[in-house]
Amino acid sequence: MFNTARRTVRGAGLASVLALALTLTACGGSSDDSADTGPGDVKAALDQGGTLTVWTWDLTMKKVAKDFQAAHPKVKVNVVNAGTGKDQYTALQNAISAGKGVPDVAQIEYFALGQFSLAKSVTDLSKFGADKLGDAYSPGPWNAVTSGGGVHGLPLDSGPMALYYNKKVFDQHKIEVPKTWDEYVTAAEKLHKADPKVYIGADTGEAGFATSMIWQAGGHPYSVDGTKVGVDFTDAGSALYAKTWQKLIDGKLLAPVTSWTDEWFKGLGDGTIATLPTGAWMPTNLSTGAAAAKGDWRVAPLPQWKAGDKVSAENGGSSLAVPSAGKNQALAYAFTEYAANGAGVKSRVDEGAFPATTAELNSPEFLNKKFDYFGGQEANKIFSASAAEVAPDWTYLPFQVYANSIFNDTVGKAYASGTTLTEGLAQWQKQSRDYGAEQGFTIAK
Fold it and tell me: Are 197 and 394 within 8 A, CB to CB?
């Protein structure tokens, strides 16, 4: 996702979201055995027409809906912003539990999708032929929507990571663009020594960023097998992240500025925050939030944990899912595929969204696009390469929304007290395990 709604999605304040107590039957609504069970039914549904309600915070979806209606005059699409992140997920869970007011299509971030798919609250789209679409998407997003042999949504966008850096600041202080995270730490030390007002980056602790870094480092702290889950932050990838990032914290080399605040955007704009490792959806936010730095910033490949590697991770991104309790799943799937794999993709990309589809990621038009904000750089070439290099087999917990909500009370302490990242990860692990057990999951030892 690429708009400023992202600032509300991660971090603290999500503890009330989705009390997933394995109420599999209560949350089901209509089942996957419904009458509309194939691509032929999708065509028939389009011919018959009807009204769809789509819950999304994505501003580009209004244009997609308008185009879809023009192509299918018998269909009316109502686009509703039911909130972002926790607000929408709470509303969706409440509607499912009440058995009324459930949308036909809902935008759900990858890290949150497991909560709905495990409870069978979203439809397995394989019955409409979605299981044949894997090659149409980059590996990270496709892995995120598939589990247990089912396809629980279609990737809407993605967030392969890259390193955004202020070239003007780097040149001024003769700092080389880091190719590894060890070089990143060294660059942080040189930069802050040259000008104590300048920091390599800003980080006060954020769950999505930490898990993305562990992902890139080869970590697999989460395992999910139905209702049996594992949480283990003692794996090598987690340890490597903690050891390296602890150096930045101990050296006070990170600006104590919280992401998505006015202070953060000010730092990105005036050069006191010199890098930002994050997802490919960021350019629009930079160009609007830090407009004063137009021409100063560039994009580089994400630094590696081991010199010479080419490994990336996803940070952000969302799917379109069809709630099982929806009344017209075939028509809902028709819109979902149009928006996430059809003509709607180009419409969204033209509006600034970052695609998950390989056709767009590899198209000359996309790859050769020049970004004025990045001094005319063809940044999509870096983003596209990153998408292809995302490490496979990453798994989120089926209660990741809750797990993320307690990050600041566990790992986040390392940024404000004597707690180390390793100790914080151990606390996060314990509290996540305890919560899972309370909700009825079997916790792997």
Answer: no
User: CA 268 to CA 249: how far, in whole Å?
Assistant: 19
| DSSP per-residue codes, 108-142 | EEHHHHHHHHHTT-B--GGGGTGGG-GGGB-HHHH
Q: How far apart are CA 84 and CA 128, in angstroms?
A: 28
> d(Cα 383, Cα 369) in Å, to the nearest integer?
12
Is 121:27 a contact under the CB 8 Å cutoff?
yes
DSSP state of 24: T
Q: For strand 50-55 and strand 75-80, is the pairing parallel, antiparallel, or unpaired?
A: parallel
State pTM to two decimals: 0.90
- What is the rounded CA–CA span in Å between residue 392 and residue 44? 37
Is residue 111 a contact partner of residue 404, using CB atoms and an 8 Å limit?
A: yes
Angstrom distances, CA of residue 142 to CA of 55, 106, 118, 149: 21, 17, 17, 12
The two structure tokens encoding residue 194: 């040259």
| Placement of tokens 């209004």 in the chain | 62
Q: Write out the two tokens for 248.
A: 């930045």
Tokens of 49: 């027409």
pLDDT above 80: residue 20: no
* Number of residues that make up the chain: 445
Enumerate the CATH 3.40.190.10 domain ranges in the chain, comma separated: 4-158+316-368, 161-314+393-443
Distance CA 196, CA 347 (A): 44
The predicted-structure confidence for 111-150, as pLDDT tens digits, reads as follows 999 999 999 999 999 999 999 999 999 999 999 999 889 9
Of the chain, the end-to-end C-alpha distance in Å amounts to: 35
Residue 351 phi/psi, 5-degree rounding, is -90, -5
3-state DSSP assignment of residue 308: coil
Q: What strands, in cross-sheet order, belong to the sheet with 228-231?
A: 222-225, 228-231, 442-443
Enter the tokens of residue 118: 């495990």
Architecture of domain 161-314+393-443: 3-Layer(aba) Sandwich (3.40)
Report yes or no: 110 and 212 within 8 Å, Cβ to Cβ. Answer: no
Q: Is the pLDDT of residue 35 over 50?
A: no
Alpha helices in 317-372 (DSSP H): 329-341, 343-350, 358-361, 364-367
The answer to whether the CB of 60 falls within 8 A of the CB of 127 is no
Residue 442 pairs in a beta bridge with 228
Residue 275, beta-bridge partner list? 165
CATH code for the part of the protein at 4-158+316-368: 3.40.190.10
What residues contact residue 436 under an 8 Å CB cut-off, 6+ apart?
229, 231, 397, 399, 443
